[in-house]
Amino acid sequence: MAHSNLPTDDEARAAELPFPTLREVGFAAPFAWVGRGLADLKANPTASLFYGFCFAGMGLLVTFIFEHAYQYTSAATTGFLLMAPFFAMGLYELSRRRELGQPVQLGPTLTVWRRNAGNIAVFAAVLTVIFLIWARASLVVFAIFYTRELPNLSGFLTQVLSFENIEFLAVYFAVGMIFALLVFAVSVVSIPLMLDRNQDAVTSMIASIRALALNPGPLLVWAVLIVALTILGFLSFHLGLVVTMPIVGHATWHAYRDLVAPLPRHG
User: For the whole model, what pTM was predicted?
Assistant: First the structure.
């Protein structure tokens, strides 16, 4: 029997979805998102902190493995941040369930990716490609601009904090900022859109870029808050990530809710 080429029910519903309607937000909105994220953490501490410990564990693993090869640690740590939107899906789902008054349990959030697996896989592949390019670019910058003998990680951080080898630092962070901006632009609301509406990956990434273009100032504030909370986590030898990353994950859901208008109700 020949297989039908008709679209599945999920594909048909996805094709009928209108392009997301984006909204402008004020400069204070990111602080409200963080406040709501903290409220979600307090309301669901066990499930939220589970994800926090996962983030902290990954950070510690990176540090221990590459302690004496910090040029790889830099790329791996940045890659960890690049993939954070994908790893934080469970936190988005926790916030969504609390918002809807549904039972909030850890179990269902672990497999939430199944709701729109194909498109989430496409988005994850995009982030992975960006990460691999950044990892290669990071090593090239080290090879070209790092003029000193390679110390251990603590020695490298000492040089960073004292602004030694300033040419290397300037180039390294400039290149890193380009990749960070690219990832931020395509991921502002991407995964929440794919989880909440089964939106396709391409539309979700375009919507994210448009949301950034519509709200450059507030989303710059949001990016600074994300970096600040992440640095706080790393400065505590990654243990602070147990709390800061769940807050960022929950807050990202609330950012999506403010930036993307609800679907119109029919009937």
Answer: 0.81
